[in-house]
What does this fold into?
Amino acid sequence: MDDSSTANSGPGIGGQALLKRKIGTSIEDFRNDYIDRHAPIAIPWCLSNRVTYYAQVSGKPWIPRFDYLYHSTAHNNMIQLTSPDQIHRPLRWTSPELEAKYKHLGINLEDWDAVAEMVFPPVVTIDDYYRPKVGKKYHLEVILPDEKRFLLDEALKHLQGVEPGAVDGERVELIVDGKAVVSVGEWQEVFDGIEAGKVGERR
It folds into this structure.
C-alpha cells in the first residue's frame, strides 16, 4: 500500500473517479467489499482493455472501537459512551488550489468514500473507456451487479471525475505497468469463460 497521491502510471488517458458506498453499508464492510472482493473481479476486465494502471484510494485506516467517559454537567456524573464503530481519516485534496477549485464546483470530499484511478494507453479513446468492446459481457454480468451490491449505484451512474492526482488517501495498487500486482484468484477463468460463452458468473 502506498500513501502517495502521484502514481507512476505513465502516459495515457486516465483520471480519478470519486465513488460512494451503498446507503446502510458500514465503512469497514465497504472497504472489505471494495478492496478485497471487487478488485480481483475488476482486474481481468481492466487487463483485457489494456489498462496500464489501476489503483483504489480510500480513507486512512480506521481507529478501533473504544469506550470513553463523558462528564455530564447537567446531572453532575460520568456517563460511559461508545464511539462509532469506525473512525477514519477521510480522503483529502492534494493541494489547497485543487480543494478550492472543486469546492467552487460543488464537489466536497466529505460526500465521497473512495476513488478509482485508472490509466488507459494513449491509443484508447474515451468512447472505448465508457463502452468497451472487449469484456463487455463480463462487465454486464459480473462487474455491474457487484458494483450495485456495495456502491450507491453502478459506478458510471454516480461517479464524479476529477483530474489525476487530485485526491490523496490510502492507495492500493492493483495494476502497474499493465500487469496485475495482486492475485485475481479464479476471476480470470470466469472472465475467459463468460467471454467465450461457456460459463456464467461464479456464485
